[in-house]
């Protein structure tokens, strides 16, 4: 996240804080403004996690209903957007786990046993033929990236979306997903490498290859606004 984005986020968080206080005092219009300013982002996040428009709509409705019902317990020690994201992610993951016939109480149970241990080793990592900033502006590229994200294991997908798309901190991501911070870091690395490997097949230049050990994943970060 660049300085301009950080400034905009701080302004948005400050605006949300004022609206939250007003909503807690019974101002329904204030809560409606919170919904309006956040619903598109929440829907997009839910859509990416569940892979379903219908499920994303359900998650969005559940998220704001839960937020309204529990607003009085929101302590404002974190940003309202972060709290809202946590509600949405857990609602979306619950749907994914139910769809897969898995228990709905833990993110760990929705992932493979080795998800926090094995790091993928791509055959090779190629440099991009085009500048990453040029790639991300292409609508088809975004569609391909979204498709690649959707193919990630749910546990990796959730971490990647929160860290590299929603720009949550490692701590906030860990809290949202009920994980240790070390697990968040490992899952983020796995997700980035898997995406990098997949996108290399489409955008990589085979004349400029790197061994995995020599490779750093900063260019995949440019595609999504990722941070280390």
Describe the structure.
- 65% of the residues lie in helices and 5% in strands.
- It is mainly alpha-helical.
- The protein has 2 domains: 97 residues, RNA polymerase sigma factor, region 2, helix turn helix motif (Rna Polymerase Sigma Factor, Chain: A); 109 residues, Arc Repressor Mutant, subunit A.
- It has a two-stranded antiparallel sheet.
- Helix 8 packs across helix 9.
- It is globular, with a radius of gyration of 18 Å.
- The protein starts with a helix and ends with a helix.
- About 13% of the residues have low confidence.
- Weakly predicted, low-confidence segments: 109-130, 210-216
> What is the second-level CATH architecture of the largest domain?
Orthogonal Bundle
User: Per DSSP, what share of the residues sits in E-state strands of 2 or more residues?
Assistant: under 5%
Highest-level CATH class of the largest domain: Mainly Alpha
Q: What's the end-to-end separation, in Å?
A: 11 Å
- Look up the CATH topology of the largest domain: Arc Repressor Mutant, subunit A
Major sheet description = 2 strands, antiparallel
The SSE string, one letter per element, is HHHHEHHHHHEH
Strand arrangement, major sheet: 1-2
């Amino acid at each position: 996240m660049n300085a301009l984005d950080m400034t905009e986020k701080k302004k948005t968080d400050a605006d949300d804080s004022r609206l939250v206080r007003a909503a807690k005092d019974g101002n329904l219009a204030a809560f409606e403004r919170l919904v309006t300013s956040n619903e598109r982002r929440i829907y997009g996040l839910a859509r990416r996690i569940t892979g379903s428009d219908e499920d994303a709509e359900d998650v969005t409705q559940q998220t704001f209903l839960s937020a309204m019902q529990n607003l009085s317990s929101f302590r404002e020690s974190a940003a309202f957007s972060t709290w809202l994201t946590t509600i949405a992610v857990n609602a979306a993951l619950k749907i994914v786990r139910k769809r897969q016939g898995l228990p709905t109480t833990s993110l760990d149970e929705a992932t493979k046993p080795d998800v926090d241990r094995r790091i993928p080793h791509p055959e090779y990592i190629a440099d991009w033929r085009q500048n990453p900033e040029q790639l991300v502006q292409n609508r088809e590229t975004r569609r391909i990236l979204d498709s690649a994200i959707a193919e990630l294991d749910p546990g990796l997908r959730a971490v990647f979306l929160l860290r590299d798309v929603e720009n949550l901190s490692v701590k906030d991501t860990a809290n949202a997903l009920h994980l240790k911070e070390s697990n968040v870091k490992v899952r983020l690395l796995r997700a980035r490498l898997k995406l990098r490997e997949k996108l290399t097949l489409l955008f990589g230049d085979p004349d400029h290859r790197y061994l995995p050990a020599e490779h750093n994943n900063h260019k995949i970060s440019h595609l999504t606004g990722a941070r280390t």
